[in-house]
Amino acid sequence: MKKSKAWLIILSFVICLIHILPFYILITTSFKATKDLSSKWMFPGYFYLDNFTNAWNEANLSSAFTNNFTVTIISISLIVIIGSIAAYPLSRRQTGWNKFMYALFVSALIVPPLTILVPLYKFMVDIGGMNQYWGIIMLHITFNLPMTIFLYTGFIGTIPRDLDEAAMIDGAGRFGLFYRIILPLLKPVTATVIILTGVAVWNDYQFSLFFLQKTDMRTITVALSSFFGQYTSNVGWVAAGSLMGALPMTIVYLFLQRYFISGLSSGAVKG
Amino acid sequence: MADLNTIPLEGKPQRGTHGGYISRMVRSGPFINILYMPALILFCIFIFYPFLKGIQISFTNWDGYNQDYKWLGLDNYKRMLNDPEVVKVIWNTVIYGLGSAIFQNVIGLAYALFLNMHIRTRGLVRTVIYLPVIISPLIMGYIWYFFFQYQGGAINDILLLFKDEPSNLLGDPYINVWIITFVNTYQYLGIAMVLYLAGLQSIPRDYYEAATIDGAGSIARFTQITWPLLAPAFTVSMVLNLIGGLKLFDVIVALTNSGPGYASASLSSLMYLLYFGREDAGYAATIGILMFIMISIVSIVALVLFRKREVNA
C-alpha cells in the first residue's frame, strides 16, 4: 500500500513537470541575452534584464497595461450591473414572452463573435467606436452578457420566493425588493461572473485586434502581437513581453485558485 | 391574510396589499421587464443588427471600404462551395474542434481518475494543469512558438541530436495543424479534468462497494458505474471544448498566422485574412455565415445527441 502511494506521488510530479515545461522555456528564453545562442533548455548562468526593459519600452507595455486595466474594470462593472438586473425579471416573472427572451439571450452563447466581424467592423466605423474605450467596452459587455444572464437567472431561481413575499408584506416595491433583498444574496454568483468575464476580457485578442488599432489604445495582447510581427527574430524580447503579459493574471490565479477553478467550471456547466 | 402564501406573485395584481394601480403594476406587472431593456438594446445593436447586415453583405462584392458595391446574388455562396481552399479550411476547423475535444476529454478524464485516487499532491497537480486556462491563448501560442520555431526552437534542439538539419515544423502544412490542435488541447484540458473530477466526486461510494461485493472487477466497475454516471460531465466538457476548438483564432495567429498560404487557417482566421488582407469583405461575410451555421449545427446536434445518451445510460 505504502509503496503504491509513493509511486503515485512520483507520477504526479512527472505530470506537473511536463505541464510546467512551456513556462520553463518561456523563462529561460526571456532571461537570455540576444547574443547567447545556447539551447533554450539551458538556464542562463548570468543575470540579464535587458529583454524586459526593451520589451516594455518597444511594445509600449505601460500604456497597454493601463488600457487593459481600464477596459477590464469598466466592462466587468457594467456586465455585473446590466446582467443581474436583466436576470431578475427573467427569473421571477416567467411569462411566455419572458421565457422567449431568456432563450434569445442564452442562445447567443453559441454565436462566435467573429462570424459577424465584417458587419460589426463596418458598424463600429460608422458610429465612431473605433479606437475608443467605450466602443470596445460595449462589445465586451454585449458578448459576455449571455453567460452572465444565464448564471444570474439560474441563481435567482434558487432564492426562495418566501423572501420576496415577506419583503412585499413590509411594503417593498419590486425594485426595492431587488435592491434590498435579492442583490445582497447574489455575492457568490457575482464572484463567479467577475472571474469568468474578467479572464475573458483581460485576455481578449479577437475584439481588441480589430477595434483598438491605434498604438496608444492597444491592450496587452494587441501590443504583443504587433511587437511579435516586428521582432520575430528577437525571441528574447517577445518572451519577456509574453511573460510580463501573462504575469498579472497568473498571480491573481495563484492566490484565488479555488475560486477560479470553481468559477470557471460552473460557467462551463451551461448546456 | 391567511392565504397570502398561496397567492401567486406573478400575473394578476394582488388584492389586499398596498393599493394604487401604478404600484400594483410596478409590483407584479410587465413593468418589471424594463430591467432587461439595457441588455436587450445592446443585443439588438451589437448582435442582431450586425448579423442581419452580415447576411446582406454576403450577397455583395463589397471591398470593406468603398461606398458603392454590386449586388451579386448567390455568387459568393457558389464561389465558396467550389473553393478548394475553403474545403481545406473547413477540414482544419473540424480537426481543431473535434480533435481538441477528443484529446482534451481523454486526457482530462485520465487525469481526473488519477487525481481521484486521493493522493497528497492533488492540489498541486490541479493548480499546475489548470494554470494555462487563465492565460491568454495568444500568449500561450507565443510560448509554444519557442518550442516549435525553426531556428533555435526547443524541439529542434532535441531533434538535432539525432539528425543534421532542423525541421520546419510550423511551416509543414501536414504537421502544423496538429501542433495547433496540440497547443489548444494543452491549454484547455484542465477544464475537462475539473468537470470530470467533480463528476467523480458526486458518485456515491456505496455503488462501488456493492459492485465489489457482487464480484465486479475494476474494469467492470468503470464501465458499469463510473462511465455511465459521468455522462453529464462528458456532455458539458465535450460540447464546450468542441465549440472552443471550432472558434479557434488566437493560437493560429500566434503560431503560423494561418500559413503557409491558408494551410493552417480555421474559418475564423481565413475570414480575418480575406477581410483585412485581401479586402474581400463580401466573401469574408459569406464565410462568416458558413461558420455560424456550422457551429450552430454542430453544437445543437452534439448537445441533443449527448443528452439523449445521458437519459439512456
Describe the structure.
Chain A is globular and about 75 Å long. Chain A has 13 helices and no strands. The model of chain A has no long low-confidence stretch (mean pLDDT 87). Chain A has 271 residues and is mainly alpha-helical. The longest helix of chain B has 32 residues, at 84-115. Chains A and B meet through helix 1, helix 3, helix 4, helix 5 and helix 6 of A and helix 1, helix 2, helix 5, helix 6 and helix 8 of B.
Give the key terms.
heterodimer; A: 271 residues; mainly alpha; 13 helices; B: 313 residues; 14 helices; disordered N terminus
Shape of chain B: globular
Structural class of chain B: mainly alpha
Number of strands of chain A: 0
Largest sheet geometry of chain B: none
State the helical fraction of chain B.
55-70%
Gist of the model:
The complex is a heterodimer of chains A (271) and B (313). Chain A is an all-alpha fold.
List the helices and strands and how they pair.
The complex is a heterodimer of chains A (271) and B (313).
Chain A: H1 2-30, H2 50-58, H3 61-92, H4 96-107, H5 117-126, H6 133-157, H7 161-169, H8 174-185, H9 187-202, H10 206-211, H11 220-230, H12 235-255, H13 257-268
Chain B: H1 21-28, H2 37-57, H3 75-81, H4 84-115, H5 122-130, H6 137-148, H7 154-159, H8 176-201, H9 205-213, H10 218-229, H11 231-246, H12 250-255, H13 267-277, H14 281-312
